[in-house]
UniProtKB/TrEMBL annotation:
It is found in: Golgi apparatus membrane. It holds the Pfam family Glyco_transf_61. It comes from Gossypium armourianum. GO terms for molecular function: pentosyltransferase activity. One of its GO terms (cellular component) is Golgi membrane. This is Glycosyltransferase 61 catalytic domain-containing protein. The chain crosses the membrane at residues 33-53. It is a single-pass type II membrane protein. Keywords: Glycoprotein, Glycosyltransferase, Membrane, Transferase, Transmembrane, Transmembrane helix. The lineage of its organism: Eukaryota, Viridiplantae, Streptophyta, Embryophyta, Tracheophyta. Residues 328-416 form the Glycosyltransferase 61 catalytic domain. It comes from the Eukaryota.
Length: 517
């Protein structure tokens, strides 16, 4: 804070001294136009002197404590995110969020994958990059090796979880003096910004792939309107293939493996790390153009519909090929089915499976639903899942990562989440609240202890059944072992049928044909 204190004294002293000079000058002689202009310039010089001689220290405080330096207030929206506006030749890191760090580099930016580094050089040529010249400066001192600023960052959005962050590759962000660019000549010059992030950590789990990766990538990069290049640390080719439809709607350029591509890529701007708002959501108040979770969902729609149209055409062709074998009355049956509200049961195998799933299907059909049982696998094409859920009216699923698929449902649809013992908080936080933000009609079904497989393993008075929170508050390992890995569900269909009836009425405005009241 020494620089700030000195800045305030200088500014106060500068204002008073400039005012005194003007007062004495006016008393001694009649001012002319040139004199007034000269004194105005002199006054400004006193006032602005602190900014001219302490820029780097001012920026350091700006990045650490928010918009505190009065010298930047005129150019920065005080309500804007930290580091939302920085001058050329600077690195600014926003470490204020408990979920993630994010750094910005502006000027002559160059990647150097062998050292896991990104360099920023302080002087630029006419094309925005340092010319290839001798590394010896005029006075013979090799100052090009001096670091002006050095930051470290792990560009993954689980900053608050040390155990997983220990597995994430770290990048060095280094600002150096002019002429050092000779050591890293540009192999590829890009005329668009770069966004660098990691697909390590929990990647492989659908919830984390969207919450920690895809949605923060949308939040961070969508304002570039696809004029951006993505660099990935902890690169996984299957991830790029799996989410290629979405990525192609965020960037016009191929994804680059940061470590695997040894070329030096040069930019005039780079963002390292991703911004994240909350669980599976986009906070419109934090977005430049007030985009929301609905806008993200619209992006998914644009991303998957080209593939869906291809699937439809393939099916139509198959129908044409088989039309001679279709009975004359089958068309009316299909029309009748199409008019029924569509219910998708998102099924699980193993833990948290619905053990009486067949009975649930029968009950739902008797109530008037057209039922589809969907069993997504790791290799299932997302466009196919999107097509099923986008055309559904109701989705039923047991709490778990697969519930992330609610993002594929249309606003106004109904989501029924079956909530096993010990998962109430997570079910509401990770899926219930985000679903409502998307505009879904959310119904949470908390099972009774007798609907859990744990009922057969523990005494009815055991705290595992009677007081799950006494175990979950002990930590994630207890929750995972007892309630996530070792629990299945057998629904009491008479009780659950009330939720089905409610969902049917929400969609159709009609009481169902059959009810299990």
């Amino acid at each position: 804070m020494v620089h700030h204190h000195r800045y305030n004294l200088l500014k106060k002293g500068g204002d008073e001294e400039a005012g005194t000079l003007l007062f004495l000058y006016y008393r001694r002689r009649r001012p002319n136009l040139l004199s007034v202009l000269f004194l105005s310039l002199l006054s400004c010089t006193f006032i602005l002197a602190p900014h001219l001689f302490s820029a780097s220290s001012s920026l350091s405080h700006l990045c650490s404590f928010g918009v505190q330096n009065e010298g930047f207030v005129g150019n920065i929206d005080v309500n804007a995110p930290l580091c939302s506006s920085i001058p050329n030749g600077r690195i600014c890191c926003d470490r204020s969020h408990f979920r993630s760090d994010i750094c910005f580099m502006k000027g002559d930016v160059r990647t150097h994958s062998p050292s896991s580094s990104v360099f920023l050089y302080s002087s630029k040529g006419n094309n925005g990059f340092i010319s290839y010249v001798s590394s010896m400066i005029d006075d013979g001192e090799q100052e090009e090796h001096d670091e002006l600023q050095h930051e470290k960052i792990k560009p993954y959005t689980r900053k608050w979880e040390p155990s997983i962050m220990d597995t994430i590759d770290e990048l060095d962000l280094i600002s150096k003096r002019a002429n050092l660019g000779v050591h890293h000549p540009c192999d590829v010059i890009h005329n668009v910004p770069a966004v660098i992030f990691s697909t390590g950590g929990y990647t492989g789990n659908l919830y984390h792939e969207f919450n920690d990766g895809i949605m923060p990538l949308y939040i961070t990069s969508q304002h570039f309107n696809k004029k951006v290049v993505f660099f990935i640390l902890d690169y996984r080719n299957w991830w790029v293939i799996k989410y290629g439809d979405i990525i192609s709607h965020l960037s016009d350029h191929p994804v680059i493996d940061f470590i695997g591509d040894n070329r030096t890529h040069c930019f005039t701007e780079a963002i390292i790390g991703l911004r994240i708002h909350d669980e599976l959501t986009v906070d419109s108040s934090l977005m430049r153009s007030n985009e929301s979770i609905v806008d993200f969902r619209n992006l998914l729609d644009r991303a998957y519909w080209p593939r869906i149209r291809g699937l439809i055409q393939e099916e139509e062709q198959e129908t044409v090929d088989k039309k001679m074998s279709i009975s004359p009355t089958s068309g009316s049956v299909f029309d009748y089915q199409a008019r029924k509200p569509k219910l998708v049961i998102l099924t699980r195998n193993g833990s948290r499976a619905i053990m009486n799933e067949n009975s649930l299907v029968k009950t739902s059909e008797e109530m008037g639903f057209q039922v589809q049982v969907l069993r997504p696998e790791r290799t299932t094409e997302l466009a196919k899942i999107y097509r099923s859920l986008n055309s559904s009216d109701v989705m039923i699923g047991v709490h778990g990562a697969a519930m992330t698929h609610f993002l594929f449902m249309k606003p106004g649809s109904v989501l029924i989440q079956v909530i096993p013992l010990g998962t109430e908080w997570a079910a509401e936080t990770y899926y219930g609240e985000p679903a409502r933000k998307l505009g879904l009609k959310y119904i949470g079904y908390k099972i009774k202890s007798r609907e859990s497989s744990l009922f057969d393993e523990y005494d009815k008075d055991d705290p595992v059944l009677r007081n799950p929170s006494s175990f979950t508050k002990k930590g994630w390992e207890y929750t995972k072992k007892i309630y996530l890995e070792d629990q299945t569900v057998r629904l009491e269909l008479r009780r659950f049928g009330k939720r089905l009836a409610r969902a049917y009425y929400c969609i159709t405005g009609i009481h169902p044909q059959s009810s299990l009241e």
